[in-house]
Amino acid sequence: MSSVRPLIVIAGVGNGLGTGGATARLFAQVGYRVALIARGADKLKNVADELSATGAEVVAFPVEAYGYQDMTNAFAAIKAHQWPSAGATELRVALYNAGVSVRKPFLENTEKDLRTVTDTNFNGAFAFSRQAIQEFLKNELDDKGKRGTLLFTGATGSLRGNITTSAFSAGKFAMRSLSQSLNKEFGPQNIHVAHAVIDGAILTDFHLKRFGESLRDNVDGRLDPASIATGYLYLVNQDRSAWTWELDLRPAHEKW
Ligand SMILES: NC(=O)c1ccc[n+]([C@@H]2O[C@H](COP(=O)([O-])OP(=O)(O)OC[C@H]3O[C@@H](n4cnc5c(N)ncnc54)[C@H](OP(=O)(O)O)[C@@H]3O)[C@@H](O)[C@H]2O)c1
């Protein structure tokens, strides 16, 4: 990649303390420029400012939602962005991390719930993938023999439906099958597409509220976002002679 700086685009950043934020932090540390796409301009700016304060080159691209047009517009803005430091940029990694946790008995799901899930997990993921792959196709092969790596954050619900997960699982299943099809279609063009099944509770504010502060110390019972990010860097560093489509990450003492 010589003097060209690699860029990672991440869609779905939340408050910066989950998987999206941890991945941004790790890739910035290893030399990537970082473009963040998420809802809520103020919240996103806080995350970007925190990362910039560590010396990272980070830009925030707020969106209204994770719809098809939102993702397409965000990529157009990313491509037009002038990075302050010298050197060209190539998109080398794209992570679709957005996920909406609709958990309700089937009969309580509303049309709005369904629309949010469909937009976030399918329409948005589809448009994000399309934009990322179009950029990857312009790249020369890197030192791993790849043009780029497209990652998806999945969940237990990507493999297993359950009570209260009819909408959530349907969305995650759809995203998983999208990633599998893209892996098959674009592997021959040396684009690596991988899906991570995150099978357990991630240490986030949401789960600290749900399970209490003891979750923080229960290192074998929950997943650390920084450790998931390490898994993503591992996928990106795989060469094309042996790459993973699906990675399954779970805490050591899981009981499910
Ligand atoms: N938390 C867990 O225990 C767990 C377990 C397995 C898998 N996952 C998956 O891991 C990914 C990252 O989650 P994380 O917990 O680590 O937190 P995170 O990285 O902070 O990301 C949370 C994501 O959820 C999005 N989101 C929340 N409510 C939403 C809504 N109503 N509509 C659209 N998007 C919404 C956030 O969007 P904004 O950035 O726009 O706010 C953000 O993209 C998600 O795809 C999630 O499904 C999570």
Automatic annotation (TrEMBL):
SUPFAM superfamilies: NAD(P)-binding Rossmann-fold domains. InterPro entries: NAD(P)-bd_dom_sf (IPR036291), SDR_fam (IPR002347). Pfam families: adh_short (PF00106). This is NAD(P)-binding protein. It comes from Dichomitus squalens.
